[in-house]
Structure to design on (582 residues):
């Protein structure tokens, strides 16, 4: 059923289909007399990019449902049909989180792949995204599918495709898969094979504890100072919350096997509940996600609170301050304190390679680069998207020119050991617990550690402001903002001169004298400005949501000066955004 000229006729064609699931029928009935809802649901297809697709659950071509999931799986299957038989026979690993319809979407994907005689290896229950990345590498499958909407609200779900290295599918292959998805316009004609038939023929296979054990064996290698963990780990008081998601399956086992036995879980949030009843935004960067953890933490006098998002690829933490309250750390601060510990511990142990390097996104803190430089460690900046960090790791392993030590994005995603090729909150839980134990062994807290880092390297601060553009004209509005900035590049901002700016779409960097050079990075719809006071500003549309994101980074000599400077720049950025939107 091709997307027809009007959303009304597309709606009618859906409404006439026999055997529709009850939830789809109910959604169709709900929007029967609402033109705006129909237009949004049927006026276009869900966007499928290099990070896969993500959207609101419901009926429609612009919604997450079994038909759009089948379309995505069909695109992957059609692409795999073009590969040689041995490569195709390696199959696809599939995992899913605790959201509504996640398990159903995972199994529907396997049924579509099965119609193309492609083997699938499906987890028997919810598992974290990083474990799916590991499973692709461990089982040597050609691809992986993760059904998740990560930290989005309960109304959302998503479909992510992973490549054979365990990273998100590279742009070249992703573009080809997208082209096959676009050709599968008759959503109701996509062939599926019954699950019982696939299981009997061993085309669809269940995995679980076998992969868990292999993954946990690798996770055990993340901790650096095993003696410290052994001595202090059992005394470390901290609270952990999986925010109703997949972390409950693996994180607790990882902690206990590592020797961190004195932790407590937030009981209400350890239930894998797709309603996310205790927090409307199951996102560990939001303070309200820690409300219950704070209550339990104060009761227990816990040193640290840790939360992972529903698919356990992102991690947030709150640290106890001298007055007993808890201070939430930013993603950049968490990354910096982890990095500082890794490099210091490895240098003490004589294990820091001479060609060590860290990899971070272009919108992440420069504090990390400064820390790395102090240890003689290189920093590589890549585009936003963990697949680019995965590509850098692959390059290092192939060329042997650098040794990967740490990778991160400011959006609360970190990778310590590259046996996974995506953000891994399970690894991070263990290392963060060790870092907290290190400071506890010195009579300090993780908060003290962050303050020591600022005193040594400078008081860095960052802010991300995201503006949403929903509806069919949202993409046009987003494009207008980027085009406006391209046609009229900033020359000064908040009273400071722009000394360099980059357009990653044209892959050019222009300095204050007008000299142009290459970014050295792939093409991307991103703009970045560097100012004469070490401030930087980056603008980019989100790859998964209808948002334009504005990133600010500043540095000052004291905490109060940093706060004041950041506040000043935020006010100026708000004015710029209002101007661009109007």
């Amino acid at each position: 059923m091709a997307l027809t000229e009007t959303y009304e006729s597309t709606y009618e064609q859906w409404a006439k289909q026999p055997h529709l699931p009850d939830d789809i029928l109910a959604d169709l009935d709900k929007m029967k007399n609402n033109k705006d809802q129909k237009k949004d649901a049927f006026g276009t297809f869900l966007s499928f990019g290099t990070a896969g697709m993500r959207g609101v659950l419901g009926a429609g071509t612009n919604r997450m449902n079994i038909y759009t999931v089948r379309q995505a799986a069909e695109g992957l299957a059609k692409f795999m049909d073009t590969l040689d038989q041995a490569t195709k026979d390696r199959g696809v690993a599939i995992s899913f989180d605790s959201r509504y319809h996640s398990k159903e979407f995972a199994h529907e994907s396997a049924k579509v792949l099965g119609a193309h005689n492609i083997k699938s290896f499906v987890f028997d229950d919810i598992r974290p995204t990083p474990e799916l990345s590991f499973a692709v590498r461990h089982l040597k499958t050609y691809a992986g599918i993760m059904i998740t909407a990560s930290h989005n609200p309960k109304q959302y779900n998503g479909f992510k495709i992973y490549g054979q290295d365990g990273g998100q599918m590279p742009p070249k292959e992703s573009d080809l898969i997208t082209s096959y998805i676009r050709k599968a316009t008759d959503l109701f004609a996509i062939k599926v094979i019954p699950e019982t038939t696939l299981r009997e023929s061993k085309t669809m296979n269940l995995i679980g504890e076998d992969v868990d054990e292999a993954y946990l064996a690798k996770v055990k290698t993340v901790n650096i100072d095993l003696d410290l963990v052994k001595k202090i780990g059992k005394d470390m008081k901290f609270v952990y919350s999986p925010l109703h998601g997949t972390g409950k399956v693996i994180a607790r086992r990882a902690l206990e096997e590592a020797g961190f036995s004195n932790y407590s879980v937030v009981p209400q949030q350890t239930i894998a509940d797709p309603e996310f009843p205790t927090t409307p935004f199951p996102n560990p960067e939001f303070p309200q996600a820690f409300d219950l953890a704070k209550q339990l933490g104060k009761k227990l006098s816990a040193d640290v609170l840790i939360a992972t998002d529903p698919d356990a690829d992102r991690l947030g933490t709150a640290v106890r301050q001298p007055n007993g309250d808890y201070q939430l750390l930013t993603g950049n601060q968490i990354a910096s304190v982890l990095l500082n510990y890794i490099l210091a511990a490895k240098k003490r142990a004589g294990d820091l390679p001479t060609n060590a390097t860290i990899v971070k996104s272009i919108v992440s803190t420069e504090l990390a680069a400064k820390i790395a430089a102090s240890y003689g460690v290189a920093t590589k900046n890549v585009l936003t998207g963990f697949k680019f960090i995965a590509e850098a790791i692959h390059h290092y392993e192939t060329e042997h020119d650098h040794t990967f030590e740490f990778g991160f994005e400011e959006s609360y995603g970190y990778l310590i050991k590259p046996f996974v090729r995506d953000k891994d909150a399970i690894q991070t839980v263990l290392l963060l617990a060790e870092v907290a134990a290190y400071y506890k062994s010195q009579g300090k807290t993780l908060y003290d550690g962050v303050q020591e880092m600022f005193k040594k390297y400078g008081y860095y601060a960052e802010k991300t402001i995201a503006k949403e553009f929903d509806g069919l004209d949202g993409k046009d509005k987003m494009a207008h903002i980027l085009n406006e900035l391209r046609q009229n590049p900033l020359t000064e901002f908040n009273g400071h001169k722009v000394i360099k700016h980059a357009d990653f779409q044209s892959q050019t960097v222009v300095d204050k004298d007008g000299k142009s050079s290459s970014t050295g990075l792939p093409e991307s719809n991103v703009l970045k400005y560097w100012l004469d006071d070490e401030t930087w500003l980056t603008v980019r549309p989100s790859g998964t949501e209808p948002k334009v994101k504005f990133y600010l980074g500043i540095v000052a000599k004291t905490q109060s000066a940093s706060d004041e400077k950041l506040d000043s720049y935020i006010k100026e950025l708000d004015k710029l955004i209002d101007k661009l939107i109007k």
Observations:
- Residues 205 and 244 are 27 Å apart (CA to CA).
- The chain has three domains: 7-214, 220-457, 459-581.
- The domain at 459-581 is CATH 3.30.310 (TATA-Binding Protein).
- The radius of gyration is 24 Å.
